[in-house]
């Protein structure tokens, strides 16, 4: 037997009150959890946006770096590579 059964009729009102209080607490916690999820989702969305902006910036800098490297080497660099004598070894 458990105590609630032993108390009899008077305990029903106590059980109802206790049940309402627990339901109210449950609703309060559910609402708080929902609000926290919304806040976390907003923070996550913001971080995703920041990451996307940084990727775009990194890509732009990478392209700019390639363009400047291409301009600095210019045709002279290519001409020098072609004018370097190649050595061929015959191995018999």
Automatic annotation (TrEMBL):
It comes from the Eukaryota. Residues 65-75 have a biased composition (Polar residues). Residues 1-27, 65-84 are annotated as: Disordered. This is (Atlantic silverside) hypothetical protein.
């Amino acid at each position: 037997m458990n105590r609630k059964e032993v108390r009899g009729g008077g305990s029903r009102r106590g059980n109802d009150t206790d049940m309402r209080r627990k339901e109210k607490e449950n609703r309060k916690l559910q609402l708080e959890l929902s609000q926290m999820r919304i806040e976390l989702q907003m923070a996550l969305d913001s971080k995703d946006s920041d990451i996307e902006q940084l990727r775009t910036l990194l890509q732009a800098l990478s392209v700019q770096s390639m363009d400047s490297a291409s301009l600095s080497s210019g045709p002279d660099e290519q001409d020098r590579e072609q004018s370097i004598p190649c050595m061929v070894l015959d191995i018999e």
